[in-house]
Amino acid sequence: QVQLVDTGGGLVQAGGSLRLSCAASGRTSRIATMAWFRQAPGKEREFVGAISMSGGGTDYLDSVKARFTISRENAKNTVVLHMNNLKPEDTGVYYCAAGKPGARWKNAREYDYWGQGTQVTVSS
Questions:
Q1: Residue in 94, 65, 62 with CA at minimum distance from that of residue 80
Q2: Phi, psi of 92 (to 5 degrees)
Q3: What are the CB-based long-range contacts (under 8 Å, 24+) for 100-104?
Q4: Phi and psi for 120 in degrees, rounded to 5?
């Protein structure tokens, strides 16, 4: 099993920045991809970005490209979501997810392990 703990959410004004961290423990050798999803009230969970834990390649939701960056610290089994120039529409609960090899990055159903979620609120 793999356990994920995501931290770092909070309240920030529009234009501000936040840094979310996700620490993985357990059988981390199973993890090929780590990703961030978010869910706003009344909406479906949405892909935000993902990173390959081997090659380091990334992919992002179009609306966050150039504002959000995912980085990894393999030795610590940790990924960080750097969020800049935050907008009110970025508000939601952000979840870290880990997937095995072959998982399609943007599909939440492809991920086997999830963090508990951390709230991000951006005020206008």
A1: 94
A2: 165, 180
A3: 100/30, 100/31, 100/32, 101/32, 102/32, 103/32, 103/33
A4: -120, 125
Assess contact for 100 and 113: CB atoms under 8 A.
no
Give per-residue pLDDT as tens, 11-70.
Answer: 999 999 999 999 999 999 989 999 999 999 999 999 999 999 888 899 999 999 999 999
**The pair of three-digit structure tokens given for residue 62, joined into one six-digit string:** 């179009």
3-state secondary structure the chain: CEEEEEECCEEEECCCCEEEEEEEEECHHHCCEEEEEEECCCCCCEEEEEEECCCCCEEECHHHCCCEEEEEEHHHCEEEEEECCCCHHHCEEEEEEEECCCCCCCCHHHCCEECCCEEEEEEC
What separation in angstroms does the CA of 107 have from each of 1, 99, 113? 21, 10, 13
The token pair that represents 2 in the structure block: 């793999």
**What's the rounded Cα separation, in Å, for the pair 21 and 78?**
7
